[in-house]
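Case study B.
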Amino acid sequence: MSTATMLISCPDQRGLVAAVANFVFENGGNIVQSAQHTDHGEGVFFQRVEFETTGFQIPNSEISQAFAPIATRLNMDYSVRFPTDVARVAVLASKQGHCLYDLLFRFRMGELRAEVPLVASNHPDHEGAVGFLGHDYSYLPVVDGDKAAQEKTLLSLLEAKKIDLVVLARYMQVLSPAFVNAFPHRIINIHHSFLPAFVGARPYHQAFERGVKLVGVTAHYATADLDQGPIIDQDVVRVSHRDSIEDLIRKGRDLEKAVLARAVRAHLEHRVIVYGNKTVVFGV
Amino acid sequence: MSTATMLISCPDQRGLVAAVANFVFENGGNIVQSAQHTDHGEGVFFQRVEFETTGFQIPNSEISQAFAPIATRLNMDYSVRFPTDVARVAVLASKQGHCLYDLLFRFRMGELRAEVPLVASNHPDHEGAVGFLGHDYSYLPVVDGDKAAQEKTLLSLLEAKKIDLVVLARYMQVLSPAFVNAFPHRIINIHHSFLPAFVGARPYHQAFERGVKLVGVTAHYATADLDQGPIIDQDVVRVSHRDSIEDLIRKGRDLEKAVLARAVRAHLEHRVIVYGNKTVVFGV
Amino acid sequence: MSTATMLISCPDQRGLVAAVANFVFENGGNIVQSAQHTDHGEGVFFQRVEFETTGFQIPNSEISQAFAPIATRLNMDYSVRFPTDVARVAVLASKQGHCLYDLLFRFRMGELRAEVPLVASNHPDHEGAVGFLGHDYSYLPVVDGDKAAQEKTLLSLLEAKKIDLVVLARYMQVLSPAFVNAFPHRIINIHHSFLPAFVGARPYHQAFERGVKLVGVTAHYATADLDQGPIIDQDVVRVSHRDSIEDLIRKGRDLEKAVLARAVRAHLEHRVIVYGNKTVVFGV
Amino acid sequence: MSTATMLISCPDQRGLVAAVANFVFENGGNIVQSAQHTDHGEGVFFQRVEFETTGFQIPNSEISQAFAPIATRLNMDYSVRFPTDVARVAVLASKQGHCLYDLLFRFRMGELRAEVPLVASNHPDHEGAVGFLGHDYSYLPVVDGDKAAQEKTLLSLLEAKKIDLVVLARYMQVLSPAFVNAFPHRIINIHHSFLPAFVGARPYHQAFERGVKLVGVTAHYATADLDQGPIIDQDVVRVSHRDSIEDLIRKGRDLEKAVLARAVRAHLEHRVIVYGNKTVVFGV
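Model:
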């Protein structure tokens, strides 16, 4: 089915749903899915609308422009995407490969739909396996402690490969604010705690010390403030006094894989709108 | 906030969302919440739309009629409800009172919004407590095994009290098809298994015998076929070899209370549409 | 079945299980349940053992003394309890009654086994209902801001009623360190967040502001450091952008009831050992 | 740490725990972990005990024989295993590879400890990837519908490779009773429903038709009766009216991987005892 997906946010006011629905209807489209949300506290309206473009009187390349007058009148931020807009994703990993391989397998089997022109890591370990799976692998070590140089190389690669989304699949290097700001709401990180509990390093160790009865993980957009970005998804698993730190780490790995994949999927399906430090995730 | 809530279902076709949105917008309303769903296999469209009626040009009492031409043209089933339409609920229980008291407490504190003019039971046990909580209690024993007579009395009471929704809060008497058909999609039952597993009597005992590692409960609309009606909500809890049948029953009680309350809440908030033997539950 | 339940903790060493098992066996007992745990990091051994006392050669009143030589030799902390040792519980609540009534209903139906000679509150609201349920209700307002005076009255009551366990069922008054220290590991609190996230006041509001996708609750022993005590149990429920603060509060209530009841049950069944700031909870 | 792990089951009677603990203690061992369970309905006692063998006075190869007199006296079934007993596992898959690759990755990273001398499939698809990962791959197509011949070849391979455990990682060929009986309680299958709901073919389709609000999966030992064997682990995930059959299948895949891995792990760690059609899974 040929469709267009619009994401809209604007100040709440009367007639928003009608304006969008009429634009679609009057041009011969059919709304396949629509979801909206109003944050009454902030007075902000959010909508995701997906409509069939077969028979639509405006060609895909002109839809955004054709909608502009409505958006201007209603003070809307909006974007339009088509199934032909396949995102280009870079996956960054460190020593641990569980999230990396999990994602690559999901891309390979078509569960996640994107191109992956780049896998990069500060460790050489995954070169063989990633190559076998058909992706370019860039081994980017931090040489002589010069993190800035490594990050610069990485940034060049991301630009050269025209990357739309960066996925931090347990990438253990802290990114500079400049780097993060170069990809606003386009870097997804998996943090191995139930944020805001246990920010920073070694969260499973912190959780073990505190004696919690559940451990969690959080997928969020990276921002300049470490572990403070808008949360996309979270989940937890039960632990007990019987579980050692190694058990927490092992149980956490399964969560990390699942939650990161759900967040990446939501992003790739244009189901996430960020506002302030929060997210609206449609279809959840 | 004064609002109207419409539930709509109809064959899928172009312009449905626009038709509803325009009806609201052109009469001066503001859509507060809207959710839609299309079952592409069945070709059926479902929508729940809630709009502010302050300033709406049509009085509440005439909205349904004013919408009728649109509904006729688009072959829609629809209903319109207002906050002033407070449902009248009857709660039926047997010996065990956990679901009954849980519901009454939720009504009392305003978490569930309805009037409860009747609590009925085939046991006398709850008379004091229910009376203390301010509800009428009808003790309806089955005399000489004459279930039909008991059911007839119950039916008269429900009619006399103008009951909109019957909640079977672990009511252990099987209802006749005639009784069930008198309240189509207006009887909610809590079955103490994860349907369709363990239909019929003593599901926790069945679950124990089978050695399952989770036990579940199911809230569903009662139909003439026992335990076969449209499912509104379900949930499960983990059990192990350590758990006796008594432990399963105890753990299940907490699920029964929570899941039944969620289902009743969804119904009272006009978030459920039944089609075939399934439900669309908006806001989940 | 007549049984004795022993809770043991001591430095880890050889022969601990054998020493306990032989004590039981040689005196004619039969171990019904036994669970042990070793914290290898700390080198501490924990055991809970329950044995039949029918036919046991030592009368209940002398078992503790008879075991003392073994405990001394192996440097054990231990306690012995019998089904006849019914705990005396005080439940403290404030304006909100959901945890209070939930607990009282569980005591009433025998799910939780204890006597409840005292319900106390800084609000008068629950007097009627608690009285109807057959418990004494002490309305203890804070007069002229004199919290110390109110706490002193409360402490006198707890002592007069010989209270073994204090349950803070959403009791919103901060307790002084002196009060808490008077009941070491004998005050259970329910905190309405997934600790250590959102310590302090209004955790649901904090959670809403942070945009989390799950909200949680924590049952823990109260210590002089607020919200820092040993955790007994935790749980979470999924929320989304659709949920208002009121929805978080509502969803949280169901968690609070369930998790507090599980923690109280574990304590009353002598399944909890506190060590450092952690708990071993046997049977989980 | 050098340890021995014993699994014991026998008729319940006095002195069982003491007999085992003394055997360990008197020969110079130290119990590291011990868990026991009594099925009071059936009168059966189960125990898993793990003890240090460093300094134990009986060499590993003679421990089983040395324990025999105790076992005979108390009518015990028992087994003794050592860390050096590394299980030999065969993984069987069909077209879908998600469970297969998930397991191989866990073996590779040491999360699951075993040798995997054989991966077999009725499809050729996984040959390259499995070879890359360093395992032998046997493509065993069913030729001319002769399932018996294919199964015979498979059985020969399993015997030649001295396989201890067969894992059906979404292997879609029905196994004959003779085959299953050749590996009693040594074949683990993952069924993609919450058994006993939706036995047989296409359970996700059945679940979709029934309109359930959760879908589940079940890991169990294969028995001659299809989908009826002893359950080792189960789990569920929430679905809604928005989820298509494809969504159920996708959500289910993550469950299948996690639950199958947990069950295989429990088996390899000697934490499972089967009795009747149930399991005791220690450490859960």
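Chain D has eight helices and 13 strands. The remaining cases will be described in the next quarterly update.
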